[in-house]
Write a structure and sequence with these properties.
By secondary structure, the protein is an alpha/beta fold. It contains 12 helices and 19 strands. Strands 1, 2, 10, 11, 12, 13 and 19 form a 7-stranded mixed beta sheet that branches. Strands 8-7-15-16-17-14-18 form a 7-stranded mixed beta sheet. A 3-stranded antiparallel beta sheet has the order 5-9-6. Helix 2 packs across helix 12. It binds flavin-adenine dinucleotide. Flavin-adenine dinucleotide binds next to helix 1, strand 11, strand 14, strand 18 and helix 12.
């Protein structure tokens, strides 16, 4: 293996997922020169395009169907910063949940055009498919959460929180469980109520547009990753794909400098920088930190801040089942929810110019993971045909299972999440798992990347 000459960069970011890209954009805007090192062939990490191969052709879909909420302010302002206009790339709809089941009644929640949180309270009040008593139980829980500012003395599971507020099994199955899986991708039995409440507070209690649903008009790479890359390159910085970082070390000669070793095809490269951001998922960050060698610090997680933070996470899967129907077919709603079924959320991709293509999201673990792809697609097609009267024959399908789609957002998770700054001056972490108080989401990733960048900027302002 050849080793090329060491090159210097002002900041090196390891990993070009949405957190790494957000960090780079924020720094580049402040005049920093950044080098982004990405092991994959393309940027975007877990939120990127992949190919859907039909018999004779192929088209781009997402590695997993994503949607956003109006409360994702950091993501929306980052889009603006690189010149993307919201109306060109997103469709915004006031929150409306249409929840179907093969055996249970249809339930609908539609927010009203009032200031928050009244828009939602009136929505709960007029929910279709629930009894007066069930609606009353939801409203009294919502009011209690408002009054207590969505805070808990001690973290508990979402299920415990719902039981505390006497939510019936029907309300839990039809409303709260799907919402918890959609936002935290963690089963209610062990999902953190505190993180769930943070998302509810940001989306439901501040401005009524915060609860809007935002749907992408393009695949995630075309929409954000490619324009983000152009922005970074145009501003004198660079992204290097297929360049895997294999070690991060301090320079034995200049101890305030890092040496980053990479492998690209069969060649080894090394880079020097005084500031490094590791923007990889926690399990990779952990292996990179193990390669860290310094005479001052032990080679383990003790370099994290706060001292009790850890990179030992459990993960939850997400399965996206893409079903291709004839192009004349479309869903009655952009998104349909399903409860007491394997399918959870079903999204019509006609917005991404893919008529007849439906993305079915199954968050978290479940028996579906034991089925073959063919069996699973047939089962989902059957479920949908029970609730959608005019569903045509299925033409083709593709299933993408991300086993480590998100970290498992468990009770007390916030206590273990590390800060961006580490104990090593100049070494930072970014990624959805860091302590943003948000679950594993695009918004969490972007907040983390921006926060790491701000700390580097702050350090420069003190020099
Ligand atoms: C199927 C699925 C559906 C989802 N749905 C939603 C949704 O609807 N809404 C939402 O908000 N969020 C959703 N998420 C979560 C969201 O995609 C993630 O939270 C976000 O993309 C995480 O970004 P990140 O930058 O923190 O990490 P990552 O995307 O994991 O980025 C890390 C990057 O580091 C690179 N890397 C790893 N090792 C190395 C190395 N040694 N050297 C160099 N580079 C390396 C990786 O290739 C990757 O590009 C979903 C995720 C999945 C998987």
């Amino acid at each position: 293996m050849k080793l090329t000459q060491t090159q210097n960069s002002e900041v090196i970011i390891i990993g070009a997922g949405w957190s790494g890209l957000a960090c780079a954009i924020t720094l580049v805007k402040q005049g920093f020169t950044v080098r982004l090192l990405e092991s994959a062939q393309q940027t975007g990490g877990r939120a990127r395009q992949v190919q859907f191969k039909h018999f004779l052709s192929s088209e781009t879909i997402d590695n997993g169907q994503h949607i956003m909420l109006g409360a994702y302010h950091s993501t929306l302002s980052l889009f603006k910063e690189i010149g993307l206009s919201e109306k060109d790339i997103l469709e915004r709809q006031p929150l409306e949940l249409n929840l179907f089941s093969t055996k249970q009644p249809f339930i609908q929640l539609k927010t009203k055009n009032y200031p928050a949180p009244l828009h939602l309270l009136f929505g709960f009040m007029s929910m279709q498919g629930l009894t007066l008593n069930e609606r009353f139980k939801i409203i009294s829980m919502a009011l209690h959460l408002e009054i207590t500012c969505y805070k808990l003395k001690n973290d508990i599971s979402v299920k415990q929180l719902l039981n505390k507020h006497s939510q019936s099994t029907k309300i839990i199955n039809a409303l709260w469980e799907p919402l918890c899986l959609a936002t935290l991708n963690t089963p209610i039995e062990y999902a953190s109520a505190q993180v769930f409440l943070k998302v509810l507070k940001d989306s439901f209690s501040k401005k009524n547009h915060d609860s809007d649903l935002l749907f992408f008009r393009q695949d995630l790479s075309q929409l954000f990753c490619l324009p983000a890359g152009d922005f970074i390159n145009r501003n004198g910085s660079s992204i290097h794909c297929e360049e895997k970082v294999i070690a991060v070390q301090t320079d034995p000669v200049e101890s305030n400098q890092f040496i980053i070793q990479t492998r690209k095809q069969s060649k080894k490269h090394s880079y020097k920088s005084k500031q490094v951001v590791i923007a990889t998922p926690a399990y990779i960050t952990k292996t990179l930190i193990r390669t860290f060698s310094s005479h001052k610090h032990t080679v383990n997680e003790s370099l994290l801040k706060p001292a009790n933070a850890s990179l030992n996470y459990q993960y939850e899967p997400i399965c996206t089942v893409y079903l291709q129907y004839p192009s004349t077919f479309s869903l009655a709603h952009r998104m349909m929810g399903f409860y007491n079924t394997t399918a959870q959320w079903v999204i019509d991709r006609s917005l991404t110019n893919q008529p007849g293509l439906i993305a079915v999201v199954i968050s978290g673990p479940g028996l579906h993971s034991r089925l073959s792809h063919q069996q699973l697609s047939e089962n989902i097609h059957q479920e949908l045909s029970t609730c959608i009267s005019n569903l045509p024959d299925l033409l083709s399908y593709q299933i993408i299972i991300e086993k480590r789609a998100t970290f498992s957002c468990r009770v007390n998770i916030d206590q273990q999440r590390p800060q961006n700054k580490t104990q090593i001056p100049g070494l930072y972490l970014a990624g959805d798992y860091t302590n943003t108080h948000y679950p594993s989401t695009l918004e969490g990733a972007i907040r983390s990347g921006q926060s790491a960048a701000r700390q580097i900027m702050e350090k420069r302002s003190h020099e």
